[in-house]
Design brief:
CATH class of the largest domain: Alpha Beta
Shape: globular
Helix content: 25-40%
Number of domains: 3
Radius of gyration: 27 Å
Strand content: 5-15%
CATH superfamily of the largest domain: Response regulator
Mean pLDDT: 87
Structural class: alpha/beta
Number of strands: 17
Low-confidence stretches: 1-11, 96-115, 117-121, 228-235
Bound molecules: heme C
CATH topology of the largest domain: Rossmann fold
CATH architecture of the largest domain: 3-Layer(aba) Sandwich
Number of helices: 17
Distance between the termini: 36 Å
């Protein structure tokens, strides 16, 4: 809903009325032009890019370049200017001062970016009016008479559609979002009932330590910002003390939403950091989506998997992603993936449903192989008899066994009694909770595991850096997996905050992660994390492994991290 994007209680810029539409209706239509490139009549807007090539404006919607916040971006030497009304309807005096409050500070401060000469003009352009904005969109000429670079398309847009778009821009990113003041940024983290004391401590201790470190380092910066010359004010202007509220959720997940709303009403926060829940993250996810509240890297194997949701940035798709990886792996393995049958066994009401979903959805895209499925009831054990029947009926090339330790032990016993050459079983490391003791040596050639973390052979150094960091802060190692995830979050946070300069908009905040380079340094549990506009699952891979021989078997890598 667009209306949430507006600061509540703030007077909306008055639109030039169009055909008796209300201001809200115009905003909704304007947003559709901006985000989707669809005009109020349902047609795509027509754009012209280089050398008068007309293109479908859906592919060239404003959001693709100017971002959802409207605050634009800088990539290399390409500057995509902010287009929120606050910036457009005031003169742009100098680079580096692309927000109105700094406008009076005069020319200078361009040393922050090395810029092409035309951007360094002391008076880059006067304020836009509705007329000059329309001229810019249609002809590419700004109010100073400058012909814009070809990077900015020209659009065919009539007066009434233009009125909706400019009304939208005037109301886009107007006042800082809630949860920030001159000195502080307030965050919250969620912990639900049912999370073990150990995991709770692992999550909170690291997060708090990061925040403490930040706050200790921030004080001198804040002093410098208030005392120093203006170009430093700009640089240090984003520094704020961080505050972290802990939102404890109790009772049934259906009641979490009301608790979250209540916490938020009492003390609004700018964003959520980390968080840990027993069971699905969905209630928190939907709360954040509805509130348009960024949530960074919650600790969960049960995220909401969506192509279009915006506000929660996850490490991975969790169980679902392991199912996906298994499907990709089998697709690339000629004797199992292409023509033969597969059997998928999973259990109702359980994480294994997510694995099965991820597998099914990804495999379906292939369209060649049929999958026979067996869904066990919640308390129904897997028996050797059932396995035998499934095998005789289906003659599968591989079995996806999304079940737990006891079931894997049954499978191992059953396997030991038959000709094993023809049998491939895939199981999930996470569902076994890393306990592979049920897999006897004799059947290790038959069993493959999805392994959604970095391999011990390659992450030892990163783990030792993390352990040292914890030790210095006197934080006991309680759950390295969780601690590593929170370590990375705390490590990234200051960069994301300073990216915002003094523009504390939630969309802009989350966009700063979209702009981040791939990371493989400060994250110990994943080989690497990748970011991109609208991408919300940063660890995009999963290994397939087998167990080596011996009591403490090594993990033998059977696939690369990313399986295509
Ligand atoms: C393909 C990328 C792209 C798309 C799509 C795009 N823009 Fe731009 N836009 C740019 C770039 C790059 C510039 C800066 C060009 C320059 O300064 O020469 C720019 C400049 C502008 C400016 C001038 C800002 C100023 O301060 O003078 C406005 C206004 C603007 N765009 C609005 C829009 C709107 C509204 C849409 C959607 C209808 C849109 N743009 C779509 C890339 C894009």
């Amino acid at each position: 809903m667009v209306l949430f994007a507006l600061t509540p209680g703030l007077a909306m810029a008055e639109p030039t009325p169009v055909d008796g539409l209300t201001s809200e209706q115009m905003l909704v239509l304007g947003e559709r032009i901006y985000r989707q490139g669809i005009l109020p009549n349902g047609e795509p807007i027509k754009a012209v890019v280089s050398a008068d090539v007309p293109v479908n404006g859906e592919m060239f919607s404003c959001v693709n370049c100017h971002q959802r916040s409207g605050l634009g971006s800088i990539e290399g030497s390409v500057i995509t200017w902010p287009v929120n009304g606050k910036e457009l309807y005031t003169p742009r005096r100098r680079t580096g001062a692309w927000h109105a409050a700094r406008e009076k500070q005069g020319p200078g401060a361009t040393q922050r970016w090395s810029l092409p000469a035309q951007y360094q003009a002391a008076d880059a352009r006067p304020a836009y009016t509705d007329e000059t904005l329309a001229k810019l969109l249609r002809e590419g000429i700004d109010p100073a008479g400058r012909m814009l670079e070809r990077g900015m398309p020209r659009y065919q847009i009539n007066d009434s559609d233009m009125a909706m778009l400019s009304h939208y821009l005037k109301n886009l990113s107007t006042e800082n979002d809630e949860g920030v003041d001159e000195n502080r940024i307030r965050f919250a983290t969620v912990v639900t009932e049912g999370v073990s004391a150990k995991d709770r401590q692992a999550m909170l201790a690291v997060l708090k330590a990061h925040i403490e470190t930040h706050n200790t380092q921030t004080r001198p910066h804040q002093r410098r910002a208030s005392a120093g010359p203006f170009y430093k004010t700009e640089k240090y202007g984003a520094y704020r003390l961080f505050e972290l509220d802990i939102w404890e959720l109790t009772g049934a997940p259906e009641t979490w939403r009301a608790q979250l709303d209540n916490y938020y009403r009492q003390n609004p926060v700018f964003a959520m950091l980390g968080g840990i829940a027993s069971g699905s993250w969905a209630p928190v996810h939907h709360f954040c989506e509805d509130r348009e509240l960024p949530c960074l890297f919650p600790v969960t194997d049960q995220p909401v998997v969506s192509d279009s949701d915006w506000y929660t940035l996850y490490y991975s798709k969790g169980f679902y992603q392991e199912g996906e990886a298994a499907a990709r792996y089998l697709r690339t393995t000629p004797d199992t993936g292409r023509k033969n049958k597969l059997v998928q066994i999973y259990r109702a009401g359980n994480n294994s449903v997510l694995l099965a979903q991820g597998f099914r959805k990804t495999f379906a895209n292939n369209g060649v192989t049929s999958i026979a499925e067996k869904k066990l009831a919640v308390d129904e054990p897997l028996t050797e008899k059932l396995l035998q029947e499934l095998f005789e009926a289906q003659q599968p090339a591989a079995v996806l066994l999304w079940l737990d330790r006891a079931d894997l032990a049954t499978t191992t016993q059953w396997l030991a009694k038959r000709d094993r050459q023809s049998v491939t079983v895939l199981a999930s490391w996470s569902l076994l909770d890393g306990d592979t003791s049920a897999i006897a040596e004799t059947v290790r050639d038959n069993i493959y595991l999805t392994y959604p973390r970095d391999l011990p052979e390659s992450n030892a150094k990163k783990i030792s850096v993390l352990k040292r960091w914890l030790k210095i802060r006197k934080i006991p190692v309680t759950n390295l997996d969780i601690q590593s995830q929170m370590y990375f979050l705390g490590w990234m946070l200051p960069g994301a905050i300073s990216h915002m300069r003094s523009e504390f908009f939630r969309d802009y905040f989350i966009e700063s992660f979209d702009m981040m380079r791939d990371q493989d340094y400060a994250i110990a549990v994943f080989p690497r994390l990748t970011f991109g506009p609208g991408q919300r699952y940063a660890a995009k891979g999963c290994y397939i492994v087998q167990l080596g021989q011996g009591e403490q078997p090594a993990l033998i890598k059977k696939s690369e991290w990313i399986i295509h």
